[in-house]
Amino acid sequence: MATLVSPPYFSPNEDAEALRKSVEGWGTDEKGIITILGHRNAGQRKEIRVVYEQLYQENLLKRLESELSGNFERAVFRWTLDPADRDAVLANVAIKKPEIDYNVIIEIACVHCPEELLAVRRAYQVRYKHSLEEDLAQHTTGDIRKLLVALVTAYRYDGNEINAKLACSEANILHEAIKDKAFNHEEVIRILSTRSKTQLMATFNKYRDDHGCSISKNLLDDGANDFQKALHVAIRCLNDPKKYFEKVLRNAIKRAGTNEDALTRVIVTRAERDLRDIKEAYYKKNSVPLEQAVAQDTSGDYKAFLLTLLGKQD
């Protein structure tokens, strides 16, 4: 369930005019921006962007970029984008880092349904004039390249049909590969990148039933390399994304120095989807409300904006 609190009825004209007032003059009205954009869903934000440009012959996103700064600017900018375009931006940022942040690519590839992933790939191509898989292939090598390209190009069956016999045989294939430490076996990549999420859950359950341990735990031995870690992230995203995102938030907040990039990413991308469920998972794991943890670890307008997306009432 979502945490975003948005009105059923709104006026894109009134919102566009109010935002214009917030960015005009000597000082920016950050609270006014948060009050409007922090309470509008993706469809409403799109309407506001269109009307704003019609009224003022100016791109709202570019104006916000010029008026705001730091973590607050990044959070507002990414939130205001269309979801598919936002994921395209997140993917490009992850790819262009000195060391590619493959977790972000795996999240996008494995958490989304097939149509959503296809929309991200289209948005990426429109924005950057080349394909996501092309950039991944250019900036990665070896087994990580094979895995990431396979995951982003997948178009999985999205139904609930399960083949129990197939789940059994593929659980055995995965177990043999892990036992032999053949993590990069082509069959492992094939299974993870082509099977439906429902089928994979059946396979992972069969693996646990047969071997007394989850496949994700078996992947992370003491000497786990980057490829094993990437497989682990993929399996967690495919099998239980809410628990995966809870751990991303926990690591972002509890590490020495907040990882604002990861904190922003999860809250901004999940606020309209399942952030309420992620909040519940966070509380169960940490005995602290997520809002409280975020409030203690952030400050200023950035803090106010994240708390708004988390459902805090003004």
Outline:
The chain has helices at 12-23, 30-37, 42-56, 60-67, 70-80, 83-96, 102-111, 114-128, 132-139, 142-152, 164-179, 186-194, 197-211, 215-219, 226-239, 241-254, 260-270, 275-286, 290-297, 300-309. The protein is mainly α and 314 residues long.
Q: How many β-strands, per DSSP?
A: 0
Number of domains: 4
CATH superfamily of the largest domain: Annexin
The CATH topology of the largest domain comes to: Annexin V, domain 1
Q: What is the architecture of the largest domain at the second tier of CATH?
A: Orthogonal Bundle
Task: Give me some keywords for this one.
314 residues, Annexin V, domain 1, 20 helices, 0% strand, elongated, calcium-dependent phospholipid binding, metal-binding, calcium/phospholipid-binding
List the helices and strands and how they pair.
Blueprint: H1 12-23, H2 30-37, H3 42-56, H4 60-67, H5 70-80, H6 83-96, H7 102-111, H8 114-128, H9 132-139, H10 142-152, H11 164-179, H12 186-194, H13 197-211, H14 215-219, H15 226-239, H16 241-254, H17 260-270, H18 275-286, H19 290-297, H20 300-309
Helix pairs in contact: 1-2, 1-3, 2-20, 4-5, 5-17, 5-20, 6-7, 6-8, 6-9, 7-10, 7-15, 9-10, 10-12, 11-13, 15-16, 16-17, 16-18, 19-20
